[in-house]
Amino acid sequence: MRQLLRLVFVFFVFAPLAMAQGKVDSQWNCPKATVAHNLDVGDRPNHSYTISQGTCTAAKSEIEGVKEKEGASTQFSEASGSSNNWHGVFIVTMENGDKLHYSYSGKGTAKDGQLQSGTNSWSIVAGTGKFKGAKGKGTCTGNGNADGSAVWDCTGTYTLAK
């Protein structure tokens, strides 16, 4: 029985080490959304829902030696005054053509309909090719620009199935 417990302990402690693990440290430059449908709720001033799509370009990011190249987001947002809440999916195309699928949610502040600053949390939920079976999580902080673009700095961790 003692050897069985020791074997179980070794499996649960060292099995995760058999997976590729690493850190994410990326920066994304995101122009204003290319598609945005805004619906005024009408229950109070400045309360609306928006569904939008856009693309971002990686300024820096690498996972397992492969650079993240560009990302496409589809996002649902709720704005109430200067506060915004959102959630969405971000699909990243890697330099080698593989993809990573991120799920995210966040909140931020806006002025005149433009993001001022925000934070989000993300999870890697799927991948293709080398990144099939990938998992991960982390956070991003973003700052908006007057033209509607934003820069997001993201950190976190990931594991890849071997």
Relevant terms:
8% helix, mainly beta, 8-stranded antiparallel barrel, disordered N terminus, 162 residues, single chain
Protein architecture, described:
The longest helix has 13 residues, at 2-14. The protein has one helix spanning 2-14, and strands at residues 20-30, 35-40, 47-60, 62-63, 66-80, 83-94, 99-111, 114-127, 135-144, 150-160. The chain is mainly beta and 162 residues long.
SSE blueprint and pairings:
Layout: H1 2-14, E1 20-30, E2 35-40, E3 47-60, E4 62-63, E5 66-80, E6 83-94, E7 99-111, E8 114-127, E9 135-144, E10 150-160
Antiparallel strand pairs: 1-3, 1-10, 2-3, 3-5, 4-5, 5-6, 6-7, 7-8, 8-9, 9-10
Question: Could you provide a short overview of the structure?
Answer:
It is built from one helix and ten strands; from the N terminus they run H-E-E-E-E-E-E-E-E-E-E.
Average pLDDT taken over every residue = 89
Strand fraction equals over 45%
Low-confidence sequence ranges? 1-18
SS element count, helices: 1
Estimate the helix proportion, in percent: under 10%
Shape: elongated
Major sheet summary line: 8 strands, antiparallel, barrel
Q: Cα distance, first to last residue?
A: 30 Å
Count of β-strands: 10
Alpha-beta classification: mainly beta
Order of helices and strands: HEEEEEEEEEE
Q: Kindly provide the radius of gyration, computed on alpha-carbon positions and rounded to a whole number of angstroms.
A: 19 Å
Give the strand line-up of the largest sheet. Answer: 1-3-5-6-7-8-9-10
